Amino acid sequence: MKTITQLCLALTLIPLTAHAEEPRWWKGNLHTHSLWSDGDDYPEMIADWYRSNDYNFLGISDHNILAEGQRWIHVEKNAGGRVAFEKYLKRFGDDWVEHKVEKKAPQVRLKTFAEYQAKMSVPGSFLLMQSEEITDRFQGLPIHLNATNLKKHIAPRGGTSPAAVLQNNVNAVLEQRKETGQPMFPHINHPNFGWALKPTDMIELKGERFFEVYNGHPSVRNQGDKDHLSTSQMWDIINAYRTGVYKLPLLFGLATDDSHNYHQLAIGKSNTGRGWVMVKAKSLSPANIISSMEKGDFYSSSGITISEIKSNGRVFSFKIKPEDGVTYTTRFIGTRKNFKSSPDKAKRNSTEPSDAGIGVTLGQAQSLEPSYNFKGDELYVRAEVTSSKKKANPYVAGEFERAWLQPVRPSK
Fold first, then answer.
1. Residue 397: Cβ-neighbour burial (10 angstroms; 0-12, 13-18, 19+)
2. What is the pLDDT of residues 326-360, one digit of tens each?
3. Strands in 54-126 per DSSP E
4. What ranges in 150-247 are assigned the alpha helix state H?
5. Is residue 125 located within the same domain as residue 227?
6. pLDDT digits (tens, 9 = 90+) for 216-235
7. pLDDT category of residue 10 using cuts at 50, 70 and 90
8. In 3-state terms, what secondary structure has residue 67?
9. Which residue range is the domain that position 289 belongs to?
10. Per-residue pLDDT for 122 more than 60?
11. Rounded to an integer, what distance in angstroms lies between the CA atom of residue 381 and that of residue 92?
12. DSSP class of residue 263?
C-alpha cells in the first residue's frame, strides 16, 4: 500500500487538464503595401519591421494582386531602388535574396506570400494573413476595399454607383469565404480619399462590418474639411441610419497605416506605426482574430493603450494605460432613437450631423477609468479618447494620439 506521501507525489506528476486560454490583446495592421504594387520595400523587410515593433499580425494588401507566381523586377527601377535592395540583401543575405544580371539589367525576385509567410511567421507571436486591396473606380472616383485572409485573388467587380461598386466587391469576398470555408472579411478603405465616398454609399451595405475611421496615409483626409465630413462624423451617420432606420448591424471602425514608404519617415510620407487595431482573442489565428473583430472585441489606436473594456448594456467602461505627464479626454459619442432622420440623401450627408442629433457628445471625462451609464434611448454609444501627447511621425502636423472604441448598444 502506498503511503500518503507517495500518493501526493504521484498526483503532482499527473498533468492537469489545460484551462481554456484567457483572451489577451493582439496588435495588428491590416493595410500596407510592398513592391508587389506601389510600396517601396520588400515584403520580408516590411514584415520584419512590424514583427520587430511588437505587432502580432499583419496583412500586406497590395493593389489588385496577390504575391504569387514568378516575378522579377529591376533592382534600381522600382519605388525602393538600390537603397531598398542593399538593405534587403544586408538583412537577409545571398542565401535568401535571389538576384541576377540578365541582358545587363540587375534583377531581383520578389518572394511569394507562401515563401515570406513561412520565413517570417512565428507561431503564437506573429501572424501573416494574405490580403489584397481591391482597387476599383466609379466615374474616376477611387473606391478601394481591403480583403483580409484571402485564399484567391479577387478582381474588381465595378458597379453602377459608388454603393454598387462597394456592394459588388463586398459580395465577392463573402462569396469566396462561403466557397472556401476560410475566414476572411472585407473592409472599406479611406472613404475621404479623392472625396470618393459619402455616408449614403455605405449605410445600406449588406455583409460589411468595417471601415477605416483612421488611415495613416497623408492624402486620405481623415479630418475632412469645411465642405466634407470627417471619417468620425461619417461613422456616426452610418450607424445612426443602419441601426435606427434599416435595422442593420453596427459598422466598426479600424485604424490602419496604409504604409507605402519605408525609407524616409516624414509628414507627407505614408509610413508605418501610425494606426493599428488591438484585438482581444484567446489565441493568434486568423479564425480567432476575425471572429473577435466581427464581434467588436477590439479597439483602434494611434498611440493610446486601453484595457478592460466592459459593456453589459447598462454601463460602458474601460481603463486607459497612463503615461507620465500625459492627460486624456474621453468623449462618449452616440445617437439617440429620436434623431431627426431624413429620406433626403443630401441631408443624410450633411456636414453638421449633430444638428440632426447624430454623433452628439453624451458624456465626457478626464478620468483614467471613464464610464457611461446608458439611459436606454441610445441607438449606440462609442468612445473616443484624445491624448495631450503629440504623435510621433504624424500623418498631419499637430496630430495628437487617439483611440477609438467600438460602438455598443444598450440592453433592451
1. exposed
2. 999 999 999 999 999 999 999 999 989 999 999 99
3. 57-63, 72-74, 99-102, 105-109
4. 162-180, 199-202, 231-244
5. yes
6. 999 999 999 999 999 999 99
7. very low
8. coil
9. 23-71+110-408
10. yes
11. 48
12. S
DSSP for 111-156 reads PPHHHHHHHH-BTTTBEEEEEEEEEEEETTEEEEEEEES-SS----
Q: Residue 379 to residues 249, 292, 409: CA-CA distances in angstroms?
A: 11, 22, 6
Q: For residues 267 and 216, give the distance between their C-alpha atoms in angstroms, rounded to a whole number.
A: 10
Q: Give domain status of residue 32, yes or no.
A: yes
Residues 64 and 85 in one domain: no
The mean predicted confidence, pLDDT, of the chain is 95
Considering the domain architecture, whether residues 284 and 339 belong to the same structural domain is answered as yes
130 and 210 belong to one structural domain: yes
Based on the fold, state whether residues 362 and 273 are members of the same structural domain. yes
The one-letter amino acid at 332: F
Is residue 137 within 8 Å of residue 160, measured between CB atoms? no
**Inside any domain, residue 18:** no
| pLDDT at 3 exceeding the cut of 60 | no
> Side-chain half-sphere of 17: how many Cα atoms within 13 Å?
1
SS3 of residue 4 by DSSP = helix
Q: Which residue bears the cell 503595401?
A: 33
In this structure, the answer to whether residues 216 and 105 fall within a common structural domain is no
Model confidence at 400, pLDDT cuts 50, 70, 90, reads very high
Q: What is the pTM of this model?
A: 0.94
Q: 109, 130, 164 — which closes off a domain?
A: 109
Confidence at 4, pLDDT banded by 50, 70, 90: very low
3-state secondary structure of 171: helix
pLDDT digits (tens, 9 = 90+) for 54-77: 999 999 999 999 999 999 999 999
Strand partners, 279: 26, 298
Q: Do 51 and 99 reside in the same domain of the chain? A: no
Domain check: are 336 and 386 in the same one?
yes
Q: Which of 198, 207, 206, 277 is nearest to 238 (CA)?
A: 198
C-alpha cell, 389:
501627447
Greatest C-alpha distance within the chain: 87
If one counts every other C-beta atom within 10 angstroms of the C-beta of residue 361, the result is 11
Residue 5 domain-assigned?
no
Quote the CA–CA distance of 359 and 340 in Å, as a whole number: 12
Q: Regarding beta strands 141-148 and 127-138, do their DSSP bridges make them parallel or antiparallel, or are they unpaired? A: antiparallel
Q: Name the domain count of the chain.
A: 2
Stretch 201-219: mean pLDDT: 98
